Amino acid sequence: MSSTLTASVTHPPLLKTLSVWIASEAMAKVTRLGAIIIAARVLTPADLGLVALVLAFGEILKAMTDNGCGQKIIAARDKDLAATCNTAHRLFKLWCGVLFSIGCAIAAIFHFYLGQSETALLLVVYVSHFLIMPVGLVPCFLAMRNGKSRTVAAITGGQVVLSALLSVFLLLIWPVPAALILPRLLTAPAWAFAMRYIQPWQADTSAGTMPVMPFIRFGSAVIGVEMTKSLRLQADKLIIGGILGMEALGIWFFAVNAGLGLASSFANALAFALFPSLCAKTGKDRREHLKSALKTALFVLAPIVLAQAFLAPVYVPLVFGANWSAMTNLVSILCLAAIPAIIWAAIAQWLRAEDRAGDEFRISLIATILLTAALAASASSGLQIAAFTYLAAATLTQGGAAFLILKNSR
After folding, report:
1. What whole-number distance in Å separates Cα of residue 176 and Cα of residue 239?
2. Is 355 left (phi over 0), alpha (psi -120 to 50) or beta?
3. Domain ranges of the chain
4. In sequence order, what are the residues at sequence separation of 6 or more whose Cβ sits closer than 8 angstroms to the Cβ of residue 124?
């Protein structure tokens, strides 16, 4: 039988923590959406396509910064905590440096082989914030371990809000694609030092370090999961851009942000809120907590997603302008893909708490391959057909996997 991750820390009720994460994610997405509103009015679809391309590569790399070390900190035994933090900090610095180098290598390909110098420069700007992240990562996960998830949520959301506000300011005085990328780097120090403020931490050299192999075994699966999850979220942009061109990519990017982007933030909120509380339970209690969390999440979140999809014909032309009113069906369809994502987010956190990140990785990889293949096969038929295909594939893969795991976990 697999070992499980456990933590002895008492955490606030899930609904209370979830509500804070939802508020944080919603506030962050709404303000980021505000930046997209301005961008939709001052940039061309091709400019938005350029931003989408940079963010697709950047977000895939950023997802890989979750290397499992944070979960090890949350679940560590008290006597091993200092050594676990020491090891995690070293691995965070090493891995973020590797991801920065990979980003620069991709940028070099864009510059020297594809002749896209602006894309290359913006990608380097984006990945530069990886070098700042290690300053705040250990304090971030220590704070979550110590029951400060709501404060972490506020800081994380606050960074996105600040970034979006900077984007709006820059777009108004400097309407170029860089205005949507540069703030990601400029706000990274604020996030890092805020984390250190709420949870001061210094490496304790006298505590030594933990063996690295358990981190690598667990972390490699988590990295694989996060990479495939990010590919599932970003591959659509690479496919649409590659098959239909930059202008179509700009339209798709707009529709994703206006629809699925906001709705999928609920899945992120659920994942952040649920994992620490799952680690605090074991065995049957953990399974029951998962089922209760799923019921709560669907009862609270599914109606919000459905309302957003139903009201798209109203708010899209009103908020983004009449020029985008033809995209309302696209926005509505993509909104609905958030519901299977919410279900899978809960199941994935349970698998991690059960120390079954390898199972999560294998399932996520299969789901990503099927979703990407379906989208690639349908994209040439137009954006609306591609959106329907994306929704169907997401429902079958994520919903189906969640059903089978729940059925076999009894």
Report:
1. 24
2. left
3. 14-408
4. 103, 104, 107
Inter-axis angle of helices 400-408 and 357-378, nearest 10 = 160
Residue with tokens 């591609």: 386
- The amino acid at 253: F
Query: Of 130, 163, 161, which is closest to residue 61 (Cα–Cα)?
Result: 130
- 36-64, pLDDT tens digit by residue? 778 878 888 888 889 989 998 998 899 88
State how far the alpha carbon of 378 is from the alpha carbons of 34, 181, 329, in Å: 30, 30, 17
Radius of gyration of the chain (CA): 21
* CB count in 10 Å sphere of residue 205: 9
8 Å CB contact between 226 and 59: no
Of 187, 179, 72, 85, residue with least CA distance to 132? 187
Whole-number Å distance between alpha carbons of 127 and 104: 8
Model confidence, pTM:
0.72
List the beta strands (DSSP E) in 59-217.
none
Rounded-to-integer distance, Cα 144 and Cα 158, Å: 17
Could you give the C-alpha distances from 292 to 216, 298, 326, 360, in angstroms and in order?
32, 10, 40, 20
Residue 178 DSSP code: G
Sequence-ordered list of residues with C-beta below 8 angstroms from that of 240, at least 6 positions apart, any chain = 248, 249, 252, 375, 379, 383, 386
How confident is the model at residue 26, as a pLDDT?
63
In angstroms, rounded to a whole number, what is the distance separating the alpha carbons of residues 259 and 253? 10
Contact 326, 312 (CB under 8 A): no
329, 383 in Cβ contact below 8 A?
no
pLDDT score at 117: 93
So what's the pLDDT on residue 107?
96
| CA–CA distance, 10 with 275 (Å, rounded to integer) | 13
pLDDT tens per residue, range 330-362 = 889 988 988 888 888 888 888 888 888 788 888
Degrees (nearest 5) of the Cα angle 343, 347, 350? Answer: 150
Q: In the numeric block, which tokens belong to residue 364?
A: 């996520």
First to last CA, the chain: 15
Half-sphere exposure in the Cβ direction for 287 (13 Å, CA): 8
Q: Return the half-sphere exposure (C-beta side, CA atoms, 13 A cut-off) of residue 215.
A: 22
Task: State the Cα–Cα distance between residues 24 and 393, nearest whole angstrom.
Answer: 29
